[in-house]
Amino acid sequence: MHIKKGDLVAVIAGKEKGKQGRVLEINQETMRARVEKVMMVKRHVKRGKNPSMPEGGIVEKNGSIHVSNLMPVDPKSGKPTRVGTRMDGDKKVRFAKKSGAILEVAKG
Question: What is the pTM of this model?
Answer without folding.
Answer: 0.85
